[in-house]
Amino acid sequence: MSYMRLKDRAAIVTGAASGIGRATAQLFAEEGASVLAVDIPSSALLATFDGVANVTPLALSIIDDGAPARIVGEAIARFGRLDILMNNAGVSGRQFVDEIKDEDWDRIMAVNVTAQMKLARAAIPHLRKAPSARIINVASVMAEGTDLGLAAYCASKAGVAGLTRTLALELGRDNITANYLLPGAIKTGMTSPLWDARPDVADIWAKKSPLRRVGQPIDLARAALFLASDEAAFITGHGLNVDGGLMLRV
To answer: 80: burial class by Cβ within 10 Å (0-12, 13-18, 19+)?
Structure first.
């Protein structure tokens, strides 16, 4: 059931072709928002949102030259306003520090944290015009934890957390909140290929959670909807853990 919690608002959601981004774009639209859904041209973005009400797809890499200005400009041209920026797009990789190549490190940083900063920077002048604007960044439980081979990923997600807290501090006077999500083991477009090929891996992660299941994209979308809604008007600079209790045993 839709309660139209985002009625008449305009949102940008990146990484929207699958997983968390797709579920969030769809849920925001169902709740009344006009959504600009962004993902890379090689993704299934256009097919995903073909004919979907209130969602406008934009096939563009967030790390392309000029992408932040183009994305924000497209939202303003289409909707005449911007209320919500959801920075969800992300990439991963697994290499030990003594083996990681500069280009792999740079790509993970560029997508996971630098693009979030640049999109926020481009969006802020328009968010300041909204009555109550929101920035929602997707980090990871690995922002606060680690694992073998995840130096670049963990560093980038810790960067998201630090960036978001600073955005909250700087933008509070403009009535803009900035919060970040900390997903745990979630079945997304990035993880599904592994778990589909190795169901035992998904079973292992499910057993680590007190809820005895892995997360689904809708779990994160609902958390994002809360942070985007009026109910979260007095929450800013917060990392919302959406991991089914996964990190309780760490």
So the answer is: exposed
Residues 6+ apart with CB under 8 A from 20: 88, 138, 183, 186, 188, 217, 220, 221, 224
Which one of 28, 49, 79, 153 is the catalytic residue?
Answer: 153
- Specify the number of domains making up the chain: 1
Is residue 180 part of the annotated active site? The answer reads no
Domain holding 73, by residue range, is 10-184+216-242
Handedness of CA 107, 112, 118, 119 (dihedral sign): positive
CA 6 to chain centre: 17
Taking the CA atoms of residue 98, residue 102, residue 106 and residue 108 in that order, the dihedral angle to the nearest 10 degrees is: -40
State residue 207's pLDDT score: 74
* Alpha carbons 134 and 156: distance in angstroms, whole number: 21
In the sheet that 239-242 helps form, which strands lie side by side, from edge to edge?
55-59, 34-39, 10-14, 84-87, 133-138, 176-183, 239-242
Mean pLDDT calculated for residue range 166-185: 96
Kindly report which listed range (110-114, 175-179, 243-247) carries the lowest average pLDDT score: 243-247
CATH number reported for the structural domain that contains residue 175 in this entry:
3.40.50.720
Is the CA virtual torsion 228, 231, 233, 239 positive or negative? negative
Q: 0.90 exceeded by the pTM?
A: yes
User: Does 196 map to a domain?
Assistant: no
Indicate whether 65 belongs to any domain. Answer: yes
Would you call 64 helix, strand, or coil by DSSP?
A: coil
